[in-house]
């Protein structure tokens, strides 16, 4: 992994293009979330820490570019803002991931250390490559480990590429980052709390600090993966286990970002296709939205979908109208019920308490269950053309049965309406304009779309400022 990060192979044009798309995507979802509780808390903590002495500091989303903080705290605050709505890019395989979580820490270090847009692009190509490669090969959730254990190492490696560090230094940083980001998966079980938003920001913060220590000559637990008391032996499949991680060969371009995909809807990725199916199903059969007409709705889907966001999770909170937003966006029965009734999905309205507690919605919601299908599990795991959908069976009280299936979300590269630059730009405008105003939206889009050519001075402006009144007053005091 360290050798891949240190390999100075050129970034291809298609990867460069996609990195720009994902920088825009991250900013879109962060702007929409910037006034919410978790991002506001993270921002307050970050701004309590001024720029460290080694550089000029990094920007915090929502604040003027002149207001800077130390890069590890910028990674923390911006990471929480990006993840808050669960609305940015994804890659699913043996493990789950949001590889766009690499952007906040790598960008923060780039700004702090005066690097330019081309340096940032190289660093992000590495971060995406290594996180996605790990996700293809190593299941963490099988062992109840949170998926940011793949993010800490990838972000550390991406920062190493950004700074042009030697492989030996990056090796130590990766080891430290992995060792300190392995945590249980309870953050995504039961009543899901705001920590789900903070977790990737924490991993990014840890990665920045790990690189700093490694640059100063400090080492890590080694070998961190393969050691007798290492991650594989005691946290994964055991001391005799072997994993084949598909890393690029020396001189081979880092292309993994092209395997990932973003979200059209603000919900867990495995719900994306079901929202699209619900829209079309409701249009053709309006009665499926009426709990008085529906006997049951059964979703036949993959093991992963059934156990993570379906009834296979065994979490009663997934059927609780008083559950947190974080819990509801990991409840396929809730998401399907609301999408069937509304014919759309909205990052605020669809989670509103009055929406979740509406009696007809609760009745429809509780008629929905998921079951694991071996066929859809195999399609999910297929390396060449993975599928993240399934088949729905609606049993109406009049005796009629309606069935429909979907393999991919409409916005997926293989879906009905794949996202390209115009869709990313439109997503940013839709989500950000109410928070930033039109002028700031256009300013950000101009600089973001020129990312590969940006000077260090211009890269320092790759952030956005919230319009007056969009950021909340100070919340509860902490110790900083």
Q: Could you name the CATH class of the largest domain?
A: Mainly Alpha
Following the backbone from N to C, one meets helices and strands in this order, namely: HHHEEHEEHHHHHHHEHHHHHEHEEHHH
What is the name of the CATH superfamily of the largest domain? 2-methylcitrate dehydratase PrpD
Main beta sheet strand tally, sense and closure:
4 strands, mixed
Mean pLDDT: 96
What general outline do the C-alpha atoms trace?
globular
The CATH topology annotation of the largest domain reads as: 2-methylcitrate dehydratase PrpD
Structural class: alpha+beta
Q: What's the number of extended β-strand segments?
A: 8
Walk me through what this model shows:
The strands form three sheets. This protein has a four-stranded mixed beta sheet with strand order 6-5-7-8. It is of the alpha+beta class and 480 residues long. The two termini are 36 Å apart. It has helices at residues 2-6, 13-33, 37-47, 71-83, 103-112, 117-137, 151-163, 167-181, 195-215, 231-234, 272-284, 303-308, 325-328, 332-342, 353-356, 359-365, 374-381, 421-436, 438-448, 456-459; strands spanning 58-59, 68-69, 91-92, 96-97, 294-301, 368-372, 390-396, 401-406. 45% of the residues lie in helices and 7% in strands. It is globular and about 70 Å long. It folds into two domains: 2-240 and 254-262 and 420-459, 2-methylcitrate dehydratase PrpD, CATH 1.10.4100.10; 269-406, 2-Layer Sandwich (60s Ribosomal Protein L30, Chain: A), CATH 3.30.1330. β3 (91-92) and β4 form a beta hairpin. InterPro entries: MmgE/PrpD_sf, MmgE/PrpD_sf_1, MmgE/PrpD_sf_2, MmgE_PrpD, MmgE_PrpD_C, MmgE_PrpD_N. It comes from Kineosphaera limosa NBRC 100340. This is 2-methylcitrate dehydratase. Residues 265-451 form the MmgE/PrpD C-terminal domain. Residues 11-243 form the MmgE/PrpD N-terminal domain.
């Amino acid at each position: 992994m360290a050798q891949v990060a240190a390999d100075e192979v050129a970034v291809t044009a298609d990867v460069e293009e996609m990195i720009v798309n994902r920088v825009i995507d991250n900013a879109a979802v962060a702007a929409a979330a910037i006034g919410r509780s978790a991002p506001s808390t993270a921002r307050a903590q970050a701004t309590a820490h001024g720029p460290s002495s080694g550089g000029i500091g990094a920007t915090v989303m929502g604040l003027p570019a002149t207001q800077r903080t130390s890069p590890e705290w910028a990674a923390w605050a911006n990471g929480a803002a990006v993840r808050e709505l669960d609305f940015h890019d994804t890659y699913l395989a043996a493990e789950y991931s949001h590889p766009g979580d690499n952007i906040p820490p790598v960008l923060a270090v780039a700004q702090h250390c005066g690097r330019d847009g081309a340096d940032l692009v190289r660093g992000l190509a590495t971060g995406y490559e290594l996180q996605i490669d790990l996700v293809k090969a190593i299941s963490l959730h099988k062992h109840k480990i949170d998926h940011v254990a793949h993010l800490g190492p990838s972000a550390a490696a991406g920062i190493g590429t950004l700074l042009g560090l030697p492989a030996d230094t990056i090796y130590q940083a990766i080891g430290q980052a992995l060792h300190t980001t392995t945590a249980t998966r309870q953050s995504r079980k039961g009543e899901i709390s705001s920590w789900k938003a903070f977790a990737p920001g924490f991993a990014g913060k840890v990665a920045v600090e790990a690189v700093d220590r490694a640059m100063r000559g400090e080492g890590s637990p080694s070998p961190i993966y393969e050691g007798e008391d290492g991650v594989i032996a005691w946290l994964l499949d055991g001391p005799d286990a072997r994993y084949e991680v598909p890393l690029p060969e020396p001189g081979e371009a880092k292309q993994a970002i092209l395997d990932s995909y973003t979200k059209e809807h603000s919900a867990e990725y495995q719900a994306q296709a079901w929202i699209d199916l619900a829209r079309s199903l409701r249009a053709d059969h309006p009665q499926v939205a009426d709990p008085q007409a529906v006997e049951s709705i059964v979703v036949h889907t993959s093991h992963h979908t059934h156990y993570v966001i379906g009834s296979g999770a065994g979490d009663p909170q997934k059927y609780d109208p008083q559950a947190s937003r974080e819990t509801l966006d990991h409840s396929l029965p809730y998401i399907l019920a609301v999408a069937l009734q509304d014919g759309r999905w909205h990052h605020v309205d669809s989670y509103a308490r009055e929406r979740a507690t509406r009696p007809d919605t609760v009745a429809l919601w509780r008629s929905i269950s998921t079951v694991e299908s071996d066929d859809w599990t195999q399609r999910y795991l297929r390396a060449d053309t993975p599928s993240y959908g399934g088949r729905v069976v609606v049993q109406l009280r009049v005796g009629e049965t309606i069935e429909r299936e979907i393999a991919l979300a409409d916005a997926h590269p293989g879906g009905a309406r794949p996202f390209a630059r115009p869709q990313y730009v439109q997503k940013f405008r839709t989500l950000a304009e109410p928070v930033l105003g039109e002028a700031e939206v256009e300013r950000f889009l101009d600089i973001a779309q020129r990312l590969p050519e940006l000077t260090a001075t211009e890269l320092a402006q790759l952030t956005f400022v919230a319009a007056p009144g969009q950021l909340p007053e100070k919340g509860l005091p902490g110790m900083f």
